[in-house]
Amino acid sequence: MGTGSFAQNQPTIIPIETRRNALVLQTDKENHLGIIYFGKKLSQSAEYKSIPSQSRQHDGNAGIYNSAYTPSGTWSVSEPALQLTHGDGNKSLDLVYVSHKTTKENDNVSVTSIVLKDPVYAVEVTLFYKTYFQENVVEQWNVIKSEEKNPVTLQKYASANLYFIAKDYYLTHYNGTWAKEMNPEEELLTAGIRVLDSKLGTRANLFQPPSFSLSFDKPATETEGKVLLGTLAWSGNFKMDFEVDSYHNLRLIAGINPYASEYPLASKQEFKTPSFIYTFSENGKGEASRNLHIWARKYRILDGEGTRMTLLNNWEATYFDFNEDKLSELFKDGKKLGVDLFLLDDGWFANKYPRNNDQAGLGDWQENIKKLPHGIGYLVKEAQKTGIKFGIWVEPEMVNPKSELYEKHPDWVIKQPQRPEHYMRNQLPLDLSNPEVQNFVYGILDKLFTENPDIAYIKWDCNAITFNAYSAYLEKSKQKQSQLYVDYVKGLYKVLEKIRAKYPKIPMMLCSGGGGRVDYEALKYFTEFWPSDNTDPLERVFMQWEYSYFFPAITQSAHVTDWGKQPLKFRTDVAMMGRLGYDIVVSHLNEKDLKFSQEAVATYNSVKDVIFQGDLFRLVDPKKNDYAALMFAAKNKSKAILFSYLVGNRNGDGSDTPFRLEGLDASKNYKVKELNLYPETKSALKEDQIYSGEYLMTVGFNPIVNARRTSVVVEITVVN
What we know:
Belongs to the glycosyl hydrolase. By secondary structure, the protein is an alpha+beta fold.
């Protein structure tokens, strides 16, 4: 896969390289910048200039297809990456190469910046390509700047414009809705434009996440094929265009959704687009996802190379119905279970309109004196006396119409002044484009932490999307309403930056109704996310499998609940594949279930470092088989944790044949031990047998998953 350039005089060639891959840019005779190659890095970079001319498509009628950042209104009639209106009303734009430079942040990270300018108008675009050499990850974004006297209006302002040549293109994208997230679909891209987008306002995903995989020539498998994993780091409306052009080449344009989002750019102001992040592999989806995991843990996720606490959440035990005595008993249950933390969920606040259901109280963040007469501080101390840490739920961006906040500040609420209010979960978003609202939202967290410095965890929810988009603040300050979708997200990031500046280490879960903000900009500020409100373990096997292509296990919150028909062991095993939590009534567990759960927490604590920091290998796909299997292998290959589940037995009774393991050392010997055995049951495995790594990765291993053993967890340890 690659692209080339027609003959020209002294072109400027700009290679963007990682350890294995290269994106090569080159100027043409008009100084327009195009993509001449994408794929495996050549060992001799001088050969990029020899790429044959027929690889680059230039049509005098349609312009240059392989532009590195396609402008609108001049030589190109292709889908633009940048579309704007100048201060004088002119809508044309041309961008020519001016200069470029590469700076090294360290031995692994470099940033190449390329300046493009319009020869007629005072508009400048700088393309940024940040490379993470060892991880084969590229992060790219753009900065748009105007020196025009009158404001420029941005209509479309994408983050990335890539160009590929291959025999065929297979796009895997995801759809769903609440509690049905991350359903994959793979399709062959044909002529025309395939669009993935969202228009939700407060968050990126309810129906479709801003992440995808793209296979070249043929569908990639876990271990074979050319594949690009891409994701947009933006917690709001996004749009991705996949255009197979007239020459059967593919143009990808990704960024903020221009829907209802024209953005003014005053003279000397800059607009920075969000990051588009991708990795490319010639060895299948497994390697590509491990690239992203290593990069994310090291460079993006808060405390990505650290650890995570186990917890007990009260939501499914009590919902809104609790008091201090009931919570104190739950603290003891958490201690008995052996978890690190108790998490108090929704319902602890508001007095004039008490938060006894989801219809009132949001916005009024004072402790409910009837439920909690002694306040949050008392609960923190009671939890600590019990020997457990205390965390708390908030949804600070939202308001119920039935609240004191709504009564006092209706102008803080996103709603159309002349239309009926339209609710999701009986609530509306606050207007985070408004600096006063930003201060209010920050103040909610700051007050909690200031008054209760021992709060050890925050669960940050965001359950509603934006209907009837309108900002009283933008109207009053004579700004454009079309800024709202963008300025809301920018306002959210300002709040989170301020919180992290003062409280850099408090673990925070990004909830957002389940998967609503699963993006790498939000995850700068959070230690983990909530994949779905659906905690049925059978469904979670599939969901967590799909999320794992883009996000490492350390980011995925997984709770043992009473959802589903599977036994407690199955539910626990599935939750151990992420950050383990519980949302059950511990006092309702029978003696064996309690003993199993206590032992499972201890077991998890002994192996979670491998799950969090190890390399993930997806071995048996649940979408194509009656069972699923995946494993996490330590970097030094000394230990691995294998998870296997029966997901359907219509055509058989589970795994009756071995499957090949990965990530081990072929020259070392290993022993196996089954973990999480239910009390008074014995393992079906031969635990006294020694296997070579070569045997396990060539002949394979059978964990013996069947209708009597529906989930199996195996520790594989090197024998010295």
